[in-house]
Amino acid sequence: MKKIIILLSIFFLSGCATIVNDANVPVTLSFADGSEGTCKLSNKRGSWSANLPETVMIRRSDDALRYDCKTNAGKTGFGSIPSEMEGGKLAASVFFWDLGITDSITDKHRTYTASFVIPVK
Question: pTM value?
Fold first, then answer.
């Protein structure tokens, strides 16, 4: 009986513990001067177009979200939004034996800021 309990414990505690986040994260973008315009967004997981102000579903990635924008008045703005790590969920993944390997492949432990204001010139 002890052997069965030990084997079952090892079986249940050694399974993969991937994070169950959605692959995409919503990012609300707007221009600093309140104007409207368009943006091209990209990271290593994909590229998107947006008519600002808008909330865009962006694929999680460990690299920065690059943006290249132009307002309807002709002003431009370009730069990047850094990717951040959701620490608590990665710690749970490490605790359950997969050491975060699965999540580092899928980038589901990464996120972007929920709201970002793009400076324009």
Answer: 0.71
Q: What is the pLDDT of residues 9-61, one digit of tens each?
A: 666 665 554 456 788 999 999 999 999 999 999 999 999 999 999 999 999 99
For 94-97, the CB contacts below 8 A with 24+ separation are 95/17, 96/13, 96/15, 96/16, 96/17, 97/13, 97/14, 97/15, 97/17
Q: By C-alpha distance, which of 81, 74, 27 is closest to 53? A: 27
Average pLDDT over residues 61-69: 95
CA gyration radius for the chain? Answer: 20
Is the preceding omega at residue 82 within 30 degrees of 0, hence cis?
no
Q: Where are the beta strands (DSSP E) in the chain?
A: 24-31, 37-43, 46-52, 54-59, 65-71, 76-81, 84-85, 110-111, 115-118
